[in-house]
Specification:
By secondary structure, the chain is of the alpha/beta class. It is 40% helix and 11% strand. The chain has a four-stranded parallel β-sheet with strand order 4-3-5-6, sandwiched between helices. It has a two-stranded parallel sheet with strand order 1-2. The longest helix has 26 residues, at 96-121.
């Protein structure tokens, strides 16, 4: 960060636990808040899930600015790419034409993938899903799905047996039924697996929260896998 011309982060408070310290210690004026070299991917986007926070640890992992996990929506990723390209052209004006061309190439390829994913997922529109945390809230938004239950009693807090029993009863009686429950692969899956056994017809999806660090997966393959899981007939 000390030598960077530009820093890119999600924003919406996701980095508040570590980034300010790095900014301070870097001594680099280019990547401080409010400077062109500090880019927030969530800036300028209307985020879901905004709620007031008292700062109490008992209210859970609350993001007062809204849900920061916009990367789960292909549409919001495209918007972030467009904003980032504009900022890059500001930081490196001599490279603006090349940046613009790369953006246009990306837009064409990405919009083709978006059309394919929406066609595949069209039968899901209007359906109900459950989740453990809100990692995939923007995927639901993009596909026209409704998250009707959360295994976490409060954001980031482990589910209690009483809360799980309440959610199980809720899901059993819901019509039309909830057919899927999603959680990120870094989360403890025991509660979700239990829920899958308690609610008839409920499929549990355990997904990477983003592309993996192995280098074997990119954004296209990540979305391919999510859509394939959601559209696969229950076994």
């Amino acid at each position: 960060l000390r030598n960077a011309d530009m820093a890119v982060c999600s924003g919406a408070g996701l980095e508040e636990g570590w980034l300010p310290v790095l900014q301070q210690k870097s001594g680099n004026a280019r990547v401080q808040n409010g400077q062109p070299g500090m880019f927030w991917a969530t800036a300028g986007q209307a985020l879901v899930g905004r709620q007031a926070s008292s700062g109490s640890p008992f209210e859970g992992d609350v993001h007062p600015e809204g849900n920061p996990h916009i990367h789960a929506s292909p549409q919001r990723l495209l918007q972030a790419a467009q904003s980032m390209a504009a900022r890059m052209a500001q930081v490196w004006p001599a490279q603006a034409p090349a940046i613009e061309q790369r953006l246009r190439d990306f837009e064409g390829r990405w919009q083709a993938h978006m059309g394919r994913w929406q066609r595949l997922a069209a039968p899901l529109r209007g359906g109900k899903v459950a989740a453990q945390h809100t990692h995939f809230a923007y995927l639901w938004e993009w596909l026209g799905l409704q998250q009707v239950a959360d295994l976490e009693p409060k954001p980031g807090l482990s589910p209690s047996p009483a809360h799980l029993q309440k959610v199980a009863q809720q899901l059993r009686t819901m019509r039309p039924p909830v057919w899927g429950l999603a959680l990120a692969s870094h989360q403890d899956a025991r509660a979700a697996r239990w829920m899958g056994q308690q609610v008839s017809g409920l499929t549990v999806w355990v997904w990477p929260a983003t592309v993996t660090a192995t280098g074997e997966e990119d954004l296209v393959r990540w979305f391919d896998a999510l859509i394939a899981d959601m559209t696969r007939a229950p076994s």
